[in-house]
Amino acid sequence: MTDQRQGQSGAAALPEGKTIRMGLIGLGAMGRHHARVIREVEGMELVAVADAQGDKHGVAGGLEVQPDVESLIAQGIDAAMVAVPTYLHEPVGLALAQAGVHAMIEKPIAATYEEGERVAAAFEAAGLVGCVGYVERCNPALLEMRHRIEAGELGNVYQITTSRQGPFPARIADVGVVKDLATHDVDLTSWIAQSPYSLISAQVTHRSGREHEDMVVASGRLQNGTIVNHIVNWLSPLKVRETVATGEKGSFIANTLSGDLTFVANGDVRSDWDRVTVFRGVSEGDSIRYAIAKREPLRVEQENFRDRLWGKESESVSMAEGVHALKVVEAVLESASTGTTITL
User: What Pfam families does its record include (predicted)?
Assistant: First the structure.
C-alpha cells in the first residue's frame, strides 16, 4: 500500500451529475441508516432494496423488498450498498461485480483475507468502483486530525493509540470484537499515518461465553516507524472512543463520540540541573480545542462514494485498503492464538 488513496480518483465510472440508481442489500441495524442517508444525498436515488429476512425496521418505503442480490440487480441499479452480515460479503460482492454493478461494502470487506482478495480482484478486473464502508474515517474529529497532520502541524508522527470500549452490541452474531471493532482502529491508524502495518502483537480474552473474542489489546509498528497500540472491547460499561496521535510538536486527541479534536502542544523544558539537561523531554504546553463542522459521518461516507463514482476527488476507502485492514486483524488473531509477533 504505497498510496492510501490508490483507486480513489481517476476516470468517472458514471457521468458527473448523473443521478445514481442505488440498490441496498441488508436492511438491518446498519442498512436502515444507509436507506435514510442514501435518500438524503444529492445525486443518489434509492430505487431497490433487498433482504432475505424482510424489512423489520420498515425502511423500504414504497419499494418492494427483493429476496436476494440477483433480484436486486434485476432492478437496473448503477451501484449498490452492501450491509449484509460479514459472511455474505463475498458472495454478494462477487455477484455485483459479475453483473457490472459498482459497490460499497460495509467493513470488513469480507469474512477472511482470502475472500477479501477475491472480492477486490473481481471489482478491479471488471473495471468497477469498489469501496469499503469505514465510517470512522468520516468522523469530523478524525478528518480534522488527518488533514492537520498532512499539513505538518504535528511534525513527524511518533505514536498512534486508540481506545474503543463499550457495552456488547446486540447486533453482532458472526464475528468477534477484532473483526467488528478493531478493524476500525487498524484502518484509521494506517490512514492517519499514511503507512501500512509492518508487525503486530496481541492478546485476546473470551469472557462473555461466546465463541468469539470480546476483548483485545494489540501493539505494533507501521512501515514508516510509527508505533501503535489498540485497546478494544465490548464488555465495558464505560463507552470510550479516543484516538491520540503524538508527534514531535505535541499530541492530537480525537474524541469520536463527540466529534471533538484537541491539540496539546509541547512546552519548553529548561533546567539548570546538569544531570537532567541531557534528557530531551517535553512538558505540557498550550491546549486548543478546535471548532469544527460536525456532519453526520454516514452521510459523508455516501457522498464520498458518490464523488468516487463521478470521478471526483474522494476520501472513499478503496478495496485494497480494506484487504490490508483485514490482513492486519487476522494477524492480530493469529498473534493472540500463537503468542508470537506477526510480521506482515
Answer: GFO_IDH_MocA, GFO_IDH_MocA_C3
